[in-house]
Amino acid sequence: MAIITLGTMAFDAIETPFGKIDKIIGGSATYVAYAASHLTQPIQQISIVGNDFPVEEMNELKKRGVELTGVEIVPDKKSFFWSGKYHMDMNTRDTLITDLNVLADFVPKVPEEYQGSEFLMLGNLMPSLQISVVNQLKKRPKLIVLDTMNFWMETAMDDLKKVFSMIDVLMINDSEARQLSGEFSLVKSAKKIIEMGPKFLIIKKGEHGALLFHEDHVFFAPALPLEEVFDPTGAGDTFAGGFIGHLARTKDISFENMKTAIIVGSAMASFCVEKFGSQRLREITKTDIDTRLKEFVQLVNFDIDLV
Ligand code: AMP
């Protein structure tokens, strides 16, 4: 089952308490594609890069069933660049640089062969571009998932509110949920945010897992307690790729199946943080993913006698 993915393909510079790297491939769409392509194919990418983006990287993605017809290559400009520094707890980070470069003039075009896909992942990007992609689709996908971040809440709130009314599932982290709703309680935040449009809301809490809200229901998926977290960059996008990848693979968008999908998202994200960039996502096999999913089952499985 095909998934259309919109997002950035980028160069990142990352500093964590455990190491530093000046230039590594990143971007929201890149992480979504690496994660989702382990679960279903094709992934139909919509993005933009400059003349500096390596051909080998494009070929690596193609090998994994990622279609790149929707990725524009601008010959005389640089790719999007982002730089961030993590604090000691690895849950908080400061954005040091956001150089839009090619992204500043990006007008996404949905290729004809992407039309008719049933799953749409609107990765973290300018909300106006997320709106443009939804509007170009001749048939509304079965499920539209949107990921965004505080940067866009601060710079493009009106467009963000508009796109919230067009989607099914919104993914944000806990501090963004509080920022968006003005509420400290995540339960109160979820109620207010669901009133803004999305039918389902996922609040990511980093190493403390993720919450899924829908109507009066709430479900919690833990994150795997890992001995070493090396680099959390891309964990959110990888979670998104795992989530939508599972839903597309099983063709089931019920709340019950979304519970499983956030476990799959958490499992994929647990790989992402083990090495810098997308390196670990490229290495893992189906067996690695299955083994990790079993660890998740063990983590939350218990018997209880009622009192
Ligand atoms: P995450 O850690 O899941 O939030 O994603 C980090 C990735 O998002 C990095 O690889 C960045 O290149 C990319 N990124 C950072 N800031 C933005 C932004 N404002 N819009 C889109 N992508 C971004």
Please give a structural write-up:
This protein is α/β, with parallel strands linked by helices and 307 residues long. 37% of the residues lie in helices and 25% in strands. The chain has 11 helices and 13 strands. The protein has helices at residues 28-36, 55-63, 127-136, 150-155, 157-164, 174-181, 186-195, 235-250, 255-272, 279-283, 286-300; strands at residues 3-6, 10-16, 19-26, 43-49, 66-73, 80-86, 93-99, 119-122, 143-147, 169-173, 200-204, 210-214, 217-221. The protein has a 9-stranded mixed sheet with strand order 5-4-1-8-9-10-11-12-13, sandwiched between helices. A 4-stranded mixed sheet has the order 3-2-6-7. A hairpin with a 5-residue loop joins strand 11 (200-204) and strand 12 (210-214). Helix 6 (174-181) crosses helix 7 (186-195). The longest helix is centred in the last third of the chain and has 18 residues, at 255-272. The protein starts with a strand and ends in a 7-residue tail after the last helix. The mean pLDDT is 96. The protein binds adenosine monophosphate. The site of adenosine monophosphate has 17 residues, from strand 2 and helix 8.
Question: Short summary of the structure?
Answer:
This protein is α/β, with parallel strands linked by helices and 307 residues long. It contains eleven helices and 13 strands. The strands form two sheets. A nine-stranded mixed beta sheet has the order 5-4-1-8-9-10-11-12-13, with helices on both faces. Strands 3-2-6-7 form a four-stranded mixed beta sheet.
